[in-house]
Specification:
five-stranded antiparallel sheet; GH13_cat_dom; hydrolase activity; GH; eight-stranded parallel sheet; 18 strands; O16G_dom_2; Glycoside hydrolase family 13 protein; alpha/beta
Length: 549
Amino acid sequence: MNNPPSTDHAANDSWWRSAAIYQVYLRSFADGDGDGTGDIAGLRSRLQYLAYLGVDAIWINPWYPSPLADGGYDVSDFRDIHPAYGSLDEARKLISEAHELGLRVILDIVPNHVSDQHTWFQKALAAAPGSPERDRFIFRYGKGENGPLPPNDWHAAFGGPTWTRTPDGQWYLHLFTPEQPDLNWDNGEVRAEFESILRFWFDLGVDGFRIDVAHGMAKDLGLPDLGLTEFSVIAHEDNHPHWDRDGVHEIFRSWRAIADSYPEPRVFVAEAHVRPGRLPDYLRPDELHTAFNFDFLKCAWEADKLRDVIDRTITDLASVGAPATWVLSNHDEARTVTRYGRAHTGVTTPTLDQGHPTDLALGTRRARAAALLMLALPGGAYIYQGEELGLYEVEDLPESALQDPTWERSGHTVRGRDGCRVPLPWTGDTPPFGFSTFGSATPWLPQPDAWKSYTAEANQADRTSMLQLYRSALRLRRTNPDLRGEEFRWLDSPAGTLLFERGNGLLCVVNLTDQPIPLPDATSPLLASGPLDNAGMLPPDTMVLMHRD
């Protein structure tokens, strides 16, 4: 492949408003030392591929030391690298090499909780009730005589109770797994520690952070019962005791001040599951820069619903001067090809909608159109690794291979998220498809044999592949002036279709029906998600970018 031109890393402080950011799930991206687990060495070896793809930045899922009870989101040390992934020295080299290629680097930060192996929590367990060590977390006595019942009725994200009892009789709160005790963000030490962590990585050259569970952290320490029978990721009412509380905004204002203090300002993106109309509160000018658009990710492949989500997103975020973002997939959701090939194309539950038949040809056609739609909309876009290869969800992983805590916590009734985390295929006709650079070590999750047709090598050789579509769309985003700004206008179109204009005469047409539709008159196609009809018709589940003649 041709080497991409280097860009001036500091050229545009507002790069994040329109950036295409590639999500790296490090364990599954590329293995540089041959042990079957992805690592920093593997990522460094593939940076040219990411520059070739044409993205502006990479977002790396947690690479910190962790027992991996929840895929690295149980962090035991926020200032180091997990030994299986490499070292701090390698991290510095990665950041430098990425910058040389014009790629910015965004890390994950997990402020709601830590690992139960974190030094702080181990000290809390060894300390007495009421001690300063325990005040960093949320310890309480239980209900009933001698406290045999949990302090309240909250439910954990991966199933089961949200409280675990310690030998001295107190209980500690964990909204996720017992291995992830929640921090007490009313504690000044907690706030100071995370401000120090931000500075540590910013000083190493990191360009920003994705904030895990940004709608958590602040909690009603009165711990009132919710009266619900199961966990909900979103607060459905005002004054929820642990989701989307106003207290998070004071935290984020202090974080923004730190980010803005650097000569090249750093950026934040929020993972915030909130009620309609609440997201702009997180993106006020003195808080976070951007946030994931879960409404778009979870939206069904239906024209009216997509138009409504696009309208609401742009309008709501414009009220605080924030750009929209668009995302189709991530490490927590079923891959787009699989979801769009089902009878129901939306995401309806916090866990995966599993066990439904998928038409892969239909799903691929729709995923291609959706990718082009996402990259043609104003604002930023997030691409989950492997989406550019057209990968599908691996739904038949052997039960012995499953590692997502949802599997155990649900009593082996919900398979969890491992199917979208299977290591990437790079080259060759048999597993591990070049995933391990120095050998053929078995990857930490098995790859399907059929992925020989989906490798990066196979995609690069096929000029009609998903990879080439992404490359072409990303190149247009960089070079076409009509796609650079935030100008956006809907135009009238038939039912079941979307038609909008960007800039000065760039038309974007999406056919979500099951019948061909006429293309606009006096237009010239620039890029289509699939073959166009020679008779001037746009086939079903296809999108095209066109210039007015």
